[in-house]
Amino acid sequence: MFDRLTPIDFKAELEKGNVGFGILLGLFLLGLTFGCLYFAAHIS
Predict the structure, then answer these.
(1) pLDDT tens digits for 5-39?
(2) For the chain, what is the domain count?
């Protein structure tokens, strides 16, 4: 499972229908976005 050292090809993973991977990526991006907005709002 961990024998390949190549980086994950996001597009290929999503095209394979890996729903869990898509959800995980979506949540990560969502959290990153809200984190940046929250951070920016409290600095200004």
Answers:
(1) 556 676 777 677 778 877 888 899 999 999 999 99
(2) 1
